[in-house]
Amino acid sequence: MLSYVAQRLTLAVCLLLAVSALTFSGMNLLGDPLVNILGPIAADTKNPNSIALIEAAEAEYHLDKSLPERYVRWLGDLVRGDLGVQFSSTGEPPVSNIIKERAPRTAVLLVMAQSLAVLISIPWALLAASRARRPADRISTVTSFLLIALPNFALAVILKYLLAIKLGWFPITYTANDPFLSRIYQTFLPALTIALPAAAVYQRLLRTDLITTLQEDFILMARAKGVSKWKVLLRHALRPSFFSFITVFGINTGALIGGSLVVETIFRIPGLGTTIVEAIIRDDFPVVLAVVMIATSVFVLVNVLVDILYSFLDPRVKR
Amino acid sequence: MTAARRGLGFGFWLSISWLIVISLAAIFAPWLPLKDPGENYIVAGARPPYGPSSTHWLGTDQDARDVFARTIFGARTSLVIGFGAISFGIILGGTLGVLSGYFRGWTDRIASIVMLILLSFPGLILAILITALLDRGLATIAITLGILGVAPVGRLARASTLVFAERDFVTAARAIGSSNRRIIVRELLPNVVIPMAALSLLGMAIAIVAEGGLAFLGLSVDEGVTWGKLILLGAGTRDLERAPWISFGPISMLFLTVLALNYAGDRLRDYFDVKDITL
Known about the structure:
The structure holds two protein chains of two kinds. Chain A is mostly helical. Chain A has helices spanning 2-30, 33-38, 48-60, 67-79, 95-130, 135-149, 152-166, 180-214, 217-224, 229-237, 243-266, 272-281, 285-313. The N and C termini of chain A lie close together (10 Å). Chain B is built from ten helices and no strands. Chain B has helices spanning 9-27, 67-103, 105-120, 123-133, 138-165, 168-175, 180-216, 227-233, 237-242, 245-271. In chain B, helix 2 runs antiparallel to helix 3 (105-120) and helix 5 (138-165) runs antiparallel to helix 7.
């Protein structure tokens, strides 16, 4: 067991190293950080004044070092929790500060979205599986199919129109200075936008697995002993049906991270999504790098956790 | 699957018909009797946006431009992006997958590592990264979204190649002295292409949706209209309040197209009993 966990974690670390090296060299080779720090002065290499400025900036941001050296330096800082300085001539706060301020909002949104998705999908799947191939199940299949075909930004626009503008049940915008609870309330609609299609995906899988499980002998046995239908579903059928659900929960986190970036910009939540978009427009690559690393790390780690959890639930995986 | 024996079904052909209609409309848009997508149809005495009417089927936007015509013209870019992306993904991912499934060994190991790395980026993050670093031309966006397809297509191609490479007809081809190249092109490709066709429909839907996501982040193609950009145009709170049709016109067109692609892809997958598609 322990060696399996160690093996999965090593792979995850290697993947993250590869991802960071790729992203870091891509950003450094294709972008020109000097232009972002100094503006047009960076191109003016004839004027001795600007040469002095360029050299000062190069020394300050370590741009005069070789690429591998800068990567190792950045990685060392990253491990100690320092995400580097923002590239700007006006003395913006270091990247870690921005991330510390904005990442929790995205995290709340994502956790809320995944919880909602799970809370919606389990009863939905139980209901559909218990009435398999009957009208209720058919309606639920069509509904989930339609939901999956609806892109998150379109769903965001529709929900915003229906629930926020027409019905007025939810606030339209997010206010960063509001108390925690009202910000949770403001996050509900964006979270629901992300959760609904995810719930449809989970429901489809769980329903299929539940239907397969319900045909097993031990279910027939339990029913024959007089256990009620719902008790069989909840106590006997649910747990062995969770395997593909858990795997897809991990894989789907990647799609949800992408979705949350888009939904954030629609509902104006100043989280990581808006941060990376602003940073891209300014070519501020330490910020872009930080957001990419956070998103990728979360994704990779969730999948490692899912793998480990899976091996607990199904000991056969442990090779 | 019992349903697979009954043929592809009515829904499949309905989906395909919709896809053909929308593709033809997109291709021939400049010659169709549509309103000019760039023209401002301002009516004297009334301020745009105008609601849906017999002259403007889906209404007009804030600048009095015809939403229906713009949606059809938007289909041109969106469909080209979707088609270009999945072609790129299929060609690169398919080649990678077939080669690694056929030759195994080091080819397989290196290809697997490349795919693992590609798969550890959350999809949209990778797309954001590439569009941020390169320009935002049509080809760049299409290729970027195509790169997202390389790993899933590659995995499927590798899995099916592994299965077929063990079959007797491949052994027979090798026994009569066929070259590797001939075995791959003549024996393996025709078999691997079928499951990939199902995946390509689903992948095209994903690419079209991903373009919309990029548009909302302000990172879609810099010129021309796409469905994503059209929806974004009407997504502001004030515009949604007074003129929801600006967004809802393109949304319905996008939704129907994605629905048709998903449904047709799913049916094909069931029909050919493809199991290894994970997206």
